[in-house]
């Protein structure tokens, strides 16, 4: 782009016969451009325009002599000009083109093919980032060189699918010449996160069968597999419990101060019992869900969060979860307790993730931290 318009005459001009800016009218694609200065040197008149012209624009010129008309050195005035087409040698403006989109943890980087205008930084609301089918918040946007960096409000996990959309706003992504980058719609983002971020603390990478005696122990209960991954848990007497013994990272103790989530899908079978999650370390206590009222019926201790988006799956299962900040290094959870001999619940294998569930079609429960 260029903001200089050069007029070349056939003979030397009077350097003192400088017309007023207003004596010239310059149009670019039919729109007027202000003339901010006029200079004369030899046979040339140089107009400085108030805005640059791109190579793709059609430019025309009008000149009407005024109080101080343009003259040659002999004093002869130059003729007026109307609708004179101007040869436009400005380079054709090309917008910056996205080369790659990559996310690692909470940093999402868009790389373009040319340097960008650091004075035109989009707002976070101009972007939409979706992680594993769920919208992810954006804290900040910054530009340096060819790179636009978005800082997400929480890190993505290894293997999660990520897309980004971008709608140009009042301060769009643009190159130094002022050409705007194109909008993005569900642009795939390469996820190079190498492991789960520390804030997520994955407990297990998958489900553990409820009838596996190496993982679970139970008292006064029968556990019957109705179909693959679906179990019926029935009380056979008082003092009943179903206990998960390995709620920890493989080979590691839980870390005090870290945030964890335990999740399971369950529904009421026979009777009107309740579903309880409680912990043996004195921290996770009395998280009781009532199938009859479809609510958590107890107020959890400070630091305990229960999932509040309680929606039924197509098979009638209800998704239940409890999150907590670990105190100490050990934890054994009792789950699926019922009241009354012969009452039962039907449960699926638990998904043990911090803050996010991987069950298809379920909007994930977000850890409040």
Structure at a glance:
By secondary structure, the protein is mainly beta. It has strands spanning 2-8, 24-28, 31-33, 35-41, 44-53, 59-63, 81-86, 98-104, 107-112, 127-131, 134-136, 138-144, 147-152, 162-166, 184-191, 216-219, 221-227, 230-235, 241-244, 259-268, 274-279, 287-290, 295-296, 304-306, 318-325, 333-335, 344-348.
Please list the strands of the largest sheet in the order they lie side by side: 11-10-14-15-8-9-13-12
Q: Tally the structural domains.
A: 3
Q: How would you describe the shape? A: rod-shaped
Mean pLDDT: 76
Radius of gyration: 35 Å
**Low-pLDDT runs:** 196-207, 245-252, 350-369
Give, in order, the helices and strands. Answer: EEEEEEEEEEEEEEEEEEEEEEEEEEE
**Percentage of residues in strands:** 35-45%
Number of helices: 0
What's the total number of strands? 27
CATH architecture of the largest domain: Sandwich
Structure description:
The protein contains no helices and 27 strands. By secondary structure, it is mainly β. The chain has three domains: 2-86, Sandwich (Immunoglobulin-like), CATH 2.60.40; 98-191, Immunoglobulin-like; 216-348, Jelly Rolls (Sandwich), CATH 2.60.120. An eight-stranded mixed β-sheet has the order 11-10-14-15-8-9-13-12, with no helix packed on it. Strands 16-19-26-21-22-23 form a six-stranded antiparallel β-sheet, with no helix packed on it. Strand 4 and strand 5 form a beta hairpin. The radius of gyration is 35 Å and the shape is rod-shaped. The two termini are 49 Å apart. The model is unreliable at 196-207, 245-252 and 350-369 (pLDDT under 50).
């Amino acid at each position: 782009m260029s903001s200089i318009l050069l007029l070349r005459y056939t003979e030397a001009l009077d350097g003192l016969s400088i017309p007023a800016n207003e004596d010239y009218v310059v149009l670019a694609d039919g729109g007027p451009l202000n003339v901010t200065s006029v200079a004369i040197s030899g046979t040339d008149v140089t107009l400085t325009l108030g805005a640059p012209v791109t190579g793709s624009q059609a430019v025309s010129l009008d000149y009407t002599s005024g109080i101080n008309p343009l003259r040659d050195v002999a004093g002869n005035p130059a003729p007026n000009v109307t609708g004179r087409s101007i040869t436009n040698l400005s380079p054709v403006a090309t917008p910056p083109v996205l080369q790659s989109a990559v996310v690692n943890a909470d940093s999402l980087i868009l790389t373009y093919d040319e340097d960008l205008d650091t004075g035109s930084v989009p707002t976070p609301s101009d972007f939409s980032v979706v992680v594993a089918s769920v919208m992810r918040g954006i804290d900040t946007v910054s530009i340096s060189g060819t790179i636009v960096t978005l800082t997400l409000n929480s890190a993505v996990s290894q293997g999660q699918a990520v897309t980004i959309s971008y709608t140009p706003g009042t301060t769009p992504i643009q190159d130094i010449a002022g050409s705007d980058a194109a909008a993005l719609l569900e642009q795939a983002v390469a996820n190079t996160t190498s492991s789960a971020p520390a804030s997520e603390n994955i407990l297990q990478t998958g489900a553990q069968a409820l009838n596996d005696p190496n993982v679970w122990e139970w008292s006064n209960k029968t556990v019957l597999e109705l179909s693959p991954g679906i179990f019926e848990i029935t009380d056979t007497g008082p003092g009943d419990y179903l206990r998960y013994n390995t709620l920890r990272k493989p080979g590691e103790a839980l870390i005090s101060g870290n945030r964890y989530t335990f999740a399971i899908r369950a529904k009421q079978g026979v009777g009107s019992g309740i579903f309880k999650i409680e912990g043996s370390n004195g921290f996770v206590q009395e998280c009781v869900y009532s199938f009859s009222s479809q609510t958590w019926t107890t107020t959890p201790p400070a630091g305990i969060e229960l999932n509040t988006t309680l929606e039924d799956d197509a098979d009638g299962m209800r998704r239940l979860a409890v999150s907590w900040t670990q105190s100490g290094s050990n934890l054994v959870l009792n789950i699926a307790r019922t009241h009354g001999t012969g009452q039962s619940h039907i449960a699926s294998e638990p998904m043990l993730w911090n803050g996010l569930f991987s069950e298809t079609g379920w909007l994930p429960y977000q850890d409040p931290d």
